[in-house]
Amino acid sequence: MTTTPARSASPLLVLRRYEHVPEDVHPPHDFPGYGSTRLRHPLQAPFDLPQRLTEITGPVLGDRTPSLDDADLTRQHEGEPIGQRIVVHGRVLDSDGRAVPDTLVEIWQANAGGRYRHDVDRWPSPVDPNFSGVGRTTTDAQGRYRFTTIQPGAYPWRNHRNAWRPAHIHFSLFGRAFTQRLVTQMYFPDDSLFSQDPMIASIPDPRGVERLVARFDWETTEPDWALGYEWDIVLRGDEATPFEGEDHEEEDE
Amino acid sequence: MSTTARRAGNPAKLALTPSQTVGPYLSIGLTWPDGPEVAAPDAPGALVLSGRLIDGAGDTVPDGMLEIWQADAAGRFDSAEDPRGALATPGFRGYGRSLTDAGGRFWFRTVKPGALPDGEGGWQAPHVDVTVMARGLLDRLVTRVYFADEEEANAADPVLASLPAAARDTLLARPTADGYALDVVLQGPGETAFFRL
């Protein structure tokens, strides 16, 4: 075997290619309806970053394997939190329908009265001493996750006159690669506050809004215990291959 | 049952879940005591990568978060997604998260990553991938940190070469007493070069 200086021999590698996200999926960074975007959105258009090793790999957070109590937000204190007990479950998938197993899912939320356990949240709704509003779990081999928590309340904020955030749970997801990282919010069905919420309005495609709304799940609803909601999360999959025949289509000049 | 839907115009694909902001209360959900510890404190070459997150008025951002992901000093990742196989220095996580403090500061304890093959026969200069999230960011921002003292490697890096000079300079972390420093500017003069990937 010959030894070659690293610099002269760079191995050829077959790298997985993730799809580029269609323009109408994520909200734009510049969205005047949400006041906090004003000084925080870049003015320059983004540059293209090719997907190389750093982008197609991602952290393995298996050593952070959470305890069962981390996934049950109603059992983290001596007493039980006030509010409607709910089970929120679903799958983490990629856009090709493949499960994303063993991936960390983190959530945080307001309590039943719409108050976060955070110094900055000072609106007059009480903190619940028995509710932290923070959970984490890892998906199983089928990409499934499951949390037991409390139905979060709506809360006022200062974005526009009489502004109220619809009830939501923040979700943080890693997937398997840096390209797949996603933080988002899950909403509940038929919320009357959607119509005045700029976070909802920022989603370019109305069908995208539906992707953030959980489904009431009677099958998961536990008798005499908790209402069930189902919500699946879809992360970027492989780069789409052109449809069959598209390559060979002949075009008139 | 499922709450997924086929993508309009491409039924072979499921519709992607849209991003939403982390909001102002991210710290309750995303704080890890060891968040900034990408590498062990006693790792050879351990250094601190630090900086400030700055908005379009020149003010620091006290409610943001930076996450980094990088190779170890030998250019390897602890990730089965790496076609060369998962292999990294024991104690090296490769991932870090730092919530900005009252002064908008972030920091990571890490090592300088090794050079990386670009897969096509060339080399990429040592770099760190960065995600920025904050109240007011409806979707994450992505950037890269390079190291200003890697002049030769930087000059040959295909990503840096693709950028205008002013944008390139916004990605170069400068040596400090204990490592490297680079401010991330969300908007306006000195705006960081962000990427679509």
UniProtKB/TrEMBL annotation, chain A:
Coiled coil: none annotated. Residues 88-116 form the Intradiol ring-cleavage dioxygenases domain. InterPro entries: Intradiol_dOase_C, Intradiol_dOase_core, Intradiol_RC_Dioxygenase, PCDO_beta_N, Protocat_dOase_b. Pfam families: Dioxygenase_C, PCDO_beta_N. The keyword Oxidoreductase applies. Keywords: Dioxygenase, Oxidoreductase. SUPFAM superfamilies: Aromatic compound dioxygenase (SSF49482). Gene3D superfamilies: Aromatic compound dioxygenase (2.60.130.10). NCBIfam families: protocat_beta. Belongs to the intradiol ring-cleavage dioxygenase family. This is Protocatechuate 3,4-dioxygenase subunit beta. It comes from Kineococcus glutinatus. The lineage of its organism: Bacteria, Bacillati, Actinomycetota, Actinomycetes, Kineosporiales. The gene is pcaH.
From TrEMBL, chain B:
It comes from the Bacteria. Gene3D superfamilies: Aromatic compound dioxygenase. Pfam families: Dioxygenase_C. SUPFAM superfamilies: Aromatic compound dioxygenase. PROSITE patterns: INTRADIOL_DIOXYGENAS. Coiled coil: none annotated. InterPro entries: Intradiol_dOase_C (IPR000627), Intradiol_dOase_core (IPR015889), Intradiol_RC_Dioxygenase (IPR050770), Protocat_dOase_a (IPR012786). Keywords: Dioxygenase, Oxidoreductase. Residues 49-77 form the Intradiol ring-cleavage dioxygenases domain. Belongs to the intradiol ring-cleavage dioxygenase family. This is Protocatechuate 3,4-dioxygenase subunit alpha. It comes from Kineococcus glutinatus.
